[in-house]
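Q: I'm a student working through a structural biology exercise. My instructor gave each of us a protein and asked us to get a predicted structure, then write a short paragraph describing it. Mine is Signal recognition particle 54 kDa protein. I'm not confident about reading structure output yet, so if you can add a plain explanation after the tokens, that would really help. Here is the sequence I was given:
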Amino acid sequence: MGLDNLSNSLKDAMKKLAGKTVIDRAAVDELVRDLQRALLSADVNVKLVMQLSQSIKSRALDEDLPKGMNVREHVLRIVYQELVNLVGKEAEFSLRPQKILMAGLQGSGKTTTTGKLCRYFQRKGLKVGAIGADNFRPGAYAQLETLCKKINVPCYGDPKEKDAVKITRDGLAALKDVEVVIVDTAGRHALEDDLIEEIMQINDLLKPDHRWLVIDAALGQAARDQAKRFHEAIGIDGVIVTKMDGTAKGGGAMSAVSETESGIVFIGNGETIEDLERFDANGFISRLLG
Ligand code: GDP
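A: Happy to help. First, here is the predicted structure for Signal recognition particle 54 kDa protein. I'll explain a few features afterward.
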């Protein structure tokens, strides 16, 4: 995981608390200050860090001590629970026939993740296929086709066709025997209006079961604007944070999820087709605090 610094600072903060003889208001204040510093360095949104601080302080000082627990254990448990709260609930989906629309900017890892998702559903025993509707980035379709070929999954695309909506329509017809259809879309470099317009049209045609936003973990706070804009356009119901293996700043992308009222579905942690991990908030925080 790329969040080693965050993990170490959180562990240090917890250890410091565990070593205190008395856990009083001053000790809780100090713990909260340490947590703030750790989370802000990992680029977690300031507002969310402040909310977490308030919750920890008021719960640690006001909540009744659960039976059989000492103050120290009680405070550590609150910190754990509030960190789980901060990363949010994992976004849910079922292992049944469905259509998934992939959104995100160019370079976010959308095409790679589309391949990884094909692999994921294939391993779960579902018949899966991909549609390469990114006809803006040269080579995007060839890249997707190569990934799909490797795992023997059908892939529809037409790099000469300019109309991404038509590609999607033709792809749906070509893949009518497939149970899980995943549509890769164009990213561009920024959130231009025509990009948003195009993905809205694809969304109207496809009527997907899920609209997942792919965000590069290294983006930091800029992730919030992207999440907000895509959410307003098509209603994002899950976020995939990619490149978690390569950054210390994943907190920005992870906290951008709060803009979408959804949760994280998967985490990308490497360049191969197998490097996709189902997100689990409890497991993630346990590992950070490990
Ligand atoms: P797209 O423009 O959004 O389709 O982006 P690509 O799928 O082409 O990915 C851009 C770059 O990011 C490629 O070099 C990928 O190999 C790389 N990439 C994607 N996901 C991950 C990840 O989880 N970890 C790492 N280290 N690299 C990734």
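A: Here are two points you could use in your paragraph. The chain has a mean pLDDT of 93. The pocket of guanosine-5'-diphosphate is lined by residues 104, 106-112, 137, 140, 187, 242-243, 245-246, 268-271, 275 (CB under 6 Å). It's a good idea to check both against the output above yourself.
Q: Great, thank you!
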